[in-house]
Write a structure and sequence with these properties.
The complex is a heterodimer of chains A (about 650) and B (about 500).
Chain A lengths: L1 H28 L4 E5 L17 H7 L7 E3 L5 E3 L4 E9 L2 E8 L17 H5 L3 H6 L26 H5 L5 E3 L5 E6 L16 H8 L8 H17 L12 H24 L21 E6 L3 E6 L17 E5 L6 H12 L5 E5 L2 H9 L3 E16 L25 H13 L2 H13 L22 H7 L1 H6 L4 H13 L12 E3 L1 E2 L4 H14 L4 E3 L18 E7 L9 H4 L13 H8 L7 H18 L2 E14 L24
Parallel strand pairs in A: 1-10, 1-11, 13-15, 14-16
Antiparallel strand pairs in A: 2-3, 4-5, 5-7, 6-7, 8-9, 9-10, 11-17, 12-16, 12-17
Helix pairs in contact in A: 6-7, 6-8, 7-8, 9-10, 11-15, 13-19, 18-19
Chain B lengths: L1 H29 L4 H4 L6 H11 L6 H13 L17 H36 L4 H14 L3 H20 L6 H19 L3 H24 L9 H20 L5 H16 L1 H7 L6 H22 L4 H32 L24 H39 L2 H8 L4 H14 L2 H12 L4 H6 L5 H10 L3 H29 L8
The chains are: A alpha+beta (about 650), B mainly alpha (about 500).
């Protein structure tokens, strides 16, 4: 009797278990169509071309809502997007370099308005100082350094090579309205990067007119013409004051300028929002990407598939994802990174990419439901030595001239620079901040960055490094060998120098971050063995002191936002904007000036090797390592690929699929 | 009195001025708002630096820039206070206004819980001074107090979210686990009940059987997949609550109180089915609040009419019993939502979440679904905050009660034959709570300051995480926005605490 009761209970229990075991299946069988992407910072605005808004999260969120002539792929290559249009060099003679862009016929904004070359005009208005001045929109780059910029477009596009080599009238639209030619006054090595991007000018005019709803096709077409007229009218030269048409022409120009000024105000402020809901003006959301912003709040943004995605100019959407959700942390930093790793393990997010730390890596790796990879970011750590005052002048709070041990180009200064750079334990530092982040017990050597010009993630890195192999070999010997060589160099001038006799004071500028303090200490220990007395004090406001003559050495990381042929010129040319250390050598200047011309792939590598050699011989700087990153994503999500450049993992969103 | 308040307010203004001035300048000199830009290799870097320098007024020295900021704030007297713009050109006031509700929700719950738990355990600890319970509570509270919050958060997420959600797929516990946990819980229970050795053993034994049985039953019925309490179990628990509360407040010998408590239980049970009808998915907070007020009013009158003398304790017992029994009814209603909630696509069988105040994928109009969602998100951060913060209240109230218990008037009360319960509840506790007002006033003012690390770790965008972000990004206006509000409340709380203190304790009078 008793036994049978127990049996009965067991049976009931077993059947309950069985039933629930079965009922589990349907829930997981439903195909997911939402991808939740974890960001490492919060959203600050939807127009990434505004000053200060070109931030990772803003770019990630808006990238799927737009398309243009090019995009970066995961191999750091610039890919031409033929779904949007094509472009080619149409003239290349000294003093006249032209690139013609052709928009693909039939592609449309999300409100159905055709995309034409007129939509590319705004991109010139927000990049050309000359246009801004001549169209009465203020001077973004006043010649007087004490004068305040007065530009009406709050654009981050002014002041670069594009601005330097174009004028107000550098833009010509073809008669059929689908092609546009940009005229430069000289060949542009990075011309592919300067492509104009489309802007929904009809929506901007709509906003300028105070509209709060999408307009009809007819109205939108008239808005486009209105913008085009205002764009050209604003900088049209006036006839002489005694001409009978003068008054009319002046009035027309004043009207055009007024329109452009209003457009500038709308462009600068209306996209500067972090909340999108049903009360948001739909004109702000007109876009041409695979997805459209549906809603945004303080913790997330939801993007829904653009119904017109197929004709938006975006590469074909091949996946089954209909919703992209970007999730923002409350604050950036390590706490949020670990939190993101745990959220991924808990199924709350699908994709995460960010800085690598041991805590994040171990949490991510423990998650068997995710694919996790090590990656290299576009950020690289390096040590720079000061040679003289910055070309642009010294920091007002510091000494007027640099007189430290590394000053000048005498043999002594060069020897001391070389000795100091030789002692830097680059391999140990790389091991600490790359290999041991992923595996504390590893004894394998991590990749040291050996090139000043190419990152390890770039295709030509190994060829460039091979070209400077003797220099690399000299700086890759064992610590003891390098220290011995350094000591010999130092003793040429300081015979008693050595461990315990550190007579050469070297003041190093660095941030207060623990990582930098540790690297500083590692260098300090080795430098002390050959006579250098290296400081070890952080400075919270360090970037402000890069042009300070009180410092002999500098430890920080450069970040690369694009891979460009001339990208390193600003660092090494005498007058370069990033050359704060008085580095100046005619040979180096000439070598880097080569990058300003047209170079084939092999010529480029040869030019890079030449430049590397000359920089190496000056003993100005030592690259250390490229910061590691991590990326991890839900295993059932296909086609996720890490891209070290913005927009990182989102770059091929059109291929995402479950 | 008015003169005193006036004097205090003018001092407060000076303090606010000084603290904002110092904070502004410290932060301005500590970092470089252009740091990120200076490390970039953008080709138009100098242009960008010039633009930001102009936009953020970086060419004005910080002490002078402070007054530009102050000018905006002083607009409060002309009706248009301006907290300025963040460096991303968004109005600071919008950011702060959006952050306040998030912070208030998170920190209020944990502060209230910490106060209630801390005082309860503190009083228990004091009454049983130098007992096992006292030592254990002291040990546990100090242990939790000394844990770093971010580490507690990581552990909570790992065990209470990730692993618990994994466990929910098939919520069956093995016998060893059930037995082990039951032993621990029974041990804790025995510690709280206390008494003679025999009684401790008996409590332990009974407790173990109940807990073990409950775990096995939950496991066998997969209770966690579709939990519920049901009216019968609520009735059983309600009777237990009635006995317990009567015991604490009046003693079981007070038949009137016991009768009132039972009536309250009966009333709450009688409301069970009407509640199910009134509080369907389309209900709202208005209906809910109305029901709660009805419950409290009815139970007040139950207590009021049950006895003629010494109504206070009886009313208290009746109301508390009704409150807890009704709470069980509400919990039962929430539990009915559990299964549909976990089966939603947005939840996908993983109800306990680690990030943010709500599930961003959830789009529901159901009152209970939305509230359960709030609960599954607030659970972990609240637990973390409560765990590490209740030690302060515990030690403070323990010390305060012990000090009062050693006073002459307590001995007098005991000597004249007042029961120990009366001595503690009526004579000791009230006076012991007075010093706590200061602590509570400060903590309530601190609520708006937010929980800096907790908010960051759990992805709640409140005042605390806003402050951290402002510091990280060198966003001076944003930092001053959060700081000035927090500082203002802190100064006001000190004033309020002093005034309340003098009202509560006649021995302390503000000098004229």
């Amino acid at each position: 009797m008793k036994k049978s009761v127990i049996k009965g209970v067991a049976l009931v229990a077993a059947s309950v278990l069985g039933v629930t075991g079965l009922s589990l299946a349907p829930a997981s069988a439903v195909t997911r169509t939402t991808v939740v992407i974890q960001e490492t910072n919060s959203l600050t605005g939807l127009n990434t071309a505004v000053v200060g808004a070109n931030l990772v999260t803003n770019v990630d969120v808006t990238y799927p809502t737009g398309s243009g002539f090019t995009y970066w792929n995961n191999k750091a290559q610039l890919v031409r997007n033929t779904a949007f249009g094509t472009f080619k060099i149409t003239k290349n003679v000294p003093g006249d370099f032209r690139v013609t862009y052709t928009v693909k016929k039939g592609i449309k904004w999300s409100d159905g308005t055709l995309i034409t070359a007129q939509d590319l005009l705004l991109s010139h208005a927000i990049s050309s100082s000359d246009y801004s001045v001549k169209a009465g929109l203020g001077d973004p780059t006043p010649a007087d350094p004490d004068a305040d910029p007065t530009n009406k477009f709050d654009s981050a596009g002014y002041g670069g090579p594009y601005d330097d080599h174009t004028t107000a009238s550098s833009f010509d639209i073809s008669d059929d309205n689908y092609s546009l030619t940009v005229r430069y006054d000289a060949f542009q090595p990075d011309w592919q990067l300067f492509g104009p991007g489309p802007s929904p000018i009809h929506a901007l005019i709509g906003m300028a007119k105070g509209k709060k709803a999408l307009q009809s096709a007819r109205v939108n077409a008239s808005y486009k013409s209105l913008f085009e007229e205002a764009y050209y009218g604003a900088y049209e030269a006036l006839p002489p004051t005694d001409d009978e048409d003068y008054e009319a022409a002046l009035e027309a120009r004043t009207d055009a300028r007024k329109t452009m000024a209003t457009v500038a105000a709308r462009w600068s402020t209306r996209y500067n929002i972090t909340t999108v809901n049903s009360s948001t003006n739909p004109l702000v959301l007109v876009s041409n990407g695979g997805y459209m912003i549906d809603s945004c709040g303080s913790t997330s943004c939801t993007l829904k598939r653009n119904p017109l995605a197929a004709t938006s100019g975006t590469p074909k959407l091949t996946g089954n994802v209909d919703t992209l959700v970007f999730k923002f942390p409350a604050t950036g930093g390590t706490f949020s990174d670990v939190a993101a790793a745990q959220a991924l393990a808990n199924g709350e997010i699908d994709i995460y990419s960010g800085a690598a730390s041991a805590a994040v890596w171990s949490t991510l790796k423990a998650n068997t439901d995710a694919t996790t990879i090590q990656a290299s970011s576009a950020l690289y750590e390096h040590v720079d030595l000061r040679v003289g005052s910055a070309d642009a002048g010294a920091h007002p709070d510091c000494a007027a001239d640099y007189t430290g041990p590394f000053a000048g180009n005498s043999q002594k200064a060069k020897d001391l620079r070389k000795a100091f750079l030789l002692t830097i334990p680059r391999q140990d530092i790389a091991n600490t901040y790359i290999g041991k982040v992923f595996d504390p017990s590893t004894t394998a050597n991590s990749t040291v960055l050996n090139s000043h010009l190419s990152l390890t993630t770039e295709g030509d890195y190994s060829k460039v490094v091979a070209g400077i192999s003797s220099h690399v070999a000299e700086f890759s010997k064992t610590q003891d060998t390098r220290n011995a060589a350094a000591l010999a160099l130092v003793r040429k001038y300081y015979p008693s120098a050595g461990p315990g006799s550190n007579t050469i004071d070297v003041k190093l500028l660095r941030s207060t971050a623990a990582r930098r303090a540790d690297i500083n200490l590692q260098i300090q220990i080795q430098a002390a063995k050959v006579g250098f007395n290296l400081s070890n004090v952080g400075n919270g406001a360090w970037p402000n002191f890069l042009d300070c003559n009180d410092y002999d050495a500098h430890l920080f990381a450069w970040s690369r936002s694009a891979i460009s042929q001339t990208g390193s010129n600003a660092q090494y040319i005498t007058t370069g904007g990033n050359n704060s250390y008085g580095w100046s050598d005619a040979g180096v200047d000439a070598a880097f000036n080569k990058f300003e011309g047209a170079l084939s792939a092999t010529e480029l590598i040869a030019a890079k090797i030449n430049a590397e050699k000359l920089v190496a011989a000056e003993y100005w700087s030592a690259p250390l390592y490229q910061w590691p990153g991590v990326a991890s994503w839900n295993k059932s999500l296909k086609n996720v690929m890490y891209n070290p450049l913005n927009p990182n993992v989102v770059w091929n969103y059109w291929q995402f699929t479950y | 009195m008015l003169a005193y308040i006036g004097r205090r307010i003018s001092i407060a203004i000076l303090i606010l001025f000084g603290s904002t001035f110092i904070t502004y300048n410290l932060q301005a000199y500590a970092g470089d708002p252009l740091a990120e830009l200076r490390q970039s290799t953008e080709q138009n870097k100098q242009f960008l630096i010039d633009q930001l320098t102009k936009q953020l007024n970086l060419d004005v020295p910080p002490p002078a820039r402070y007054f530009m900021w102050l000018q905006g704030i002083l607009g409060v007297f002309t009706g248009n206070a301006d907290l300025g713009m963040t460096r991303n050109k968004l109005p600071v006031i919008d950011q702060v206004v959006a952050a306040i509700p998030t912070t208030v929700r998170l920190v209020t719950v944990s502060t209230v819980l910490a106060i209630v738990l801390g005082i309860t355990f503190g009083v228990l600890s004091a009454i049983r001074q130098y007992s096992r319970l006292d030592y254990s509570l002291t040990f546990v509270s100090f242990f939790l107090f000394s844990l770093p919050i971010f580490w507690v958060a990581v552990l909570l997420k790992e065990y209470m979210a990730i692993r618990f959600n994994d466990f929910l797929v098939n919520p069956v516990v093995d016998h060893i686990w059930a037995g082990g946990t039951a032993i621990v819980l029974a041990f804790v229970l025995a510690g709280f009940v206390g008494g003679s050795r025999r009684r401790v053993f008996a409590t332990f034994g009974v407790g173990f059987l109940i807990f073990f049985g409950a775990f096995e039953a939950m496991s066998a019925t997969l209770w966690l997949k579709d939990p519920s309490i049901g009216i019968i179990a609520i009735g059983v628990f309600g009777i237990g609550i009635a006995f317990g509360l009567t015991h604490v407040f009046t003693g079981l010998s007070n038949k009137k109180a016991l009768g009132a408590a039972f009536t309250s239980v009966g009333f709450s049970l009688g409301m069970y089915y009407p509640f199910q009808q009134l509080a369907k998915g389309d209900t709202n907070y208005m209906v809910f609040t109305a029901l709660a007020i009805t419950m409290l009013v009815v139970s007040y009158f139950i207590g009021y009419f049950f006895t003629k003398i010494d109504k206070g304790p009886v009313i208290r017992v009746a109301m508390l019993t009704a409150f807890f029994t009704s709470l069980l009814t509400v919990i039962d209603r929430v539990m009915q939502t559990w299964k549909p909630y976990t089966e939603l696509g947005a939840v996908a069988g993983r109800p306990i979440q680690t990030q943010g105040p709500v599930n961003i994928l959830l789009k529901s109009n159901d009152f209970w679904i939305n509230n359960l969602d709030l609960f599954t998100h607030i659970l972990l951060p609240t637990t973390a905050l409560t765990l590490i913060s209740f030690a302060g209240y515990l030690r403070f109230s323990r010390g305060s009660v012990l000090e009062v218990l050693s006073m002459d008037y307590i001995r007098t009360a005991r000597a004249k034959g007042v029961t120990e319960r009366e001595v503690i509840l009526r004579h000791a506790l009230r006076n012991a709570m007075i010093p706590l007002t200061t602590l509570i006033a400060f903590d309530i003012a601190g609520i708006l300051g937010g929980a800096l690390i907790t908010e960051s770790v759990f992805g709640w965008r409140g005042m605390g995480s806003l402050s951290i972000e402002a510091i990280q990004n060198q966003d001076l206006n944003l930092l001053m926005g959060t700081f000035s509000i927090t500082a203002f409340l802190a100064v006001m709380a000190t004033l309020a605490a002093d005034l309340i203190y003098s009202a509560l304790d006649p021995r302390i009078r503000i000098r004229k």
